[in-house]
Amino acid sequence: MPQPEETGNEAHAQPSESSEERAPERTPVLTLVSSPGNRRVLEDWLADHEAYRHVSRDADVRTADFECCLLDKEMLFEHRASLLERQASEGSILPYLLLVPEASHGKMRTQLETEYPDLWAAIDGLIDMPISKDRLAERIATVLRLRGQSVAVNQQREQLDVLNRVLRHDIRNDVHVILAWTENLGEMVSPDGQESIEKILRAGNHVVELTTSAHDIAEMIHGEGSPDLSAVSLERILTDELEKRQETHPGADISMPDPPSPETRVRTNEMLSSVFRNLVNNAVQHNDSTEPAVTVTVEEYDDRVSVVVADNGPGIPDEHQDRLFSEGKAGMDSEGTGMGLFLVDRLVESYGGEVRIEDRTTGPKGGTVFVVELPMAPERG
User: Fold this and answer.
1) What percent helix, strand, coil does the chain show, rounded to 5?
2) Is residue 93 situated within a structural domain?
3) Are 45 and 105 in the same domain?
4) What pLDDT, in 10s, does the model give residues 84-106?
5) Cβ neighbours of residue 324 under 8 Å, at least 6 residues apart?
6) Residue 140 domain-assigned?
7) What's the pLDDT tens digit per position in 23-55?
């Protein structure tokens, strides 16, 4: 059978436009340089470098498209507000490299550190001038790698935040449905089945509490730098939280015989409620007494406040106390995950306080005794 003749089109076919390799985009670099000589050298270097493109110093710093900024002292101070505003709004590392004469390196560093700490915090490195092209390329490449890593981390964090919110929302909704139906079933179940109903309700309420702790841990971890602390009413936090705990655990005796003065303020924030929510929950959920009891007492000193949370449960063996506040360190028979006490420890630490376990014989009813030391706020209402 005769074969069709080869036309050779396959061998000589030209690649389509869609199959052509597109040149990689050049990374935009902003130059804010007052010296005409240095500015010309940098602009020529960027124009000749295949990886970067020059962004004019006439661009608006607040809105310009750039991923790295080269600037000198004069431009740093002239554009101070815009540079700080842009960097604060970026969310990821936006590197600023400051060009300084080699002889002025130490002087410039000292001046910025001592007189302009906000500007010094914004600078990602000093470049001594003159500088070789290879060295300049190395410095820019290094800070841009850091920026790329920072952008990737922020994107992952945003995705995890969305997943966290969706999961917590869906879990809480489904558990609330389960709890509602279980409560309805309670009216139809014989007395012999009431114990099972109560176990389902306790487990469901515990899942709801875990979603709250997961939210608080995420808020704590994602906080930038030091937490925003203020003077918080200890009496309000304790009273509100203990009332909620009593509603959640109606079978327990949760009391605070001698509340702190309404004027007592501690230097914390509103997440302080999470500390006492988790301590009281822990005291009730791990209590094997037929009548669980939790007693909260407060002692005030000149510069600190001590809050003692004591229960009448089985106590915690000495060999387990050292690792109790580690993330995820729950016992084999625990109803919890270890998140609660981990959160307590990290929050109290962020307040400049301390949480510890004391000998259970010091508690009014035995059991476990947690002591939370918090710094007193300087201003008292």
Assistant:
1) 50, 20, 30
2) yes
3) yes
4) 999 999 888 999 999 999 888 99
5) 316, 341, 357
6) no
7) 568 899 999 999 888 888 898 889 888 899 999
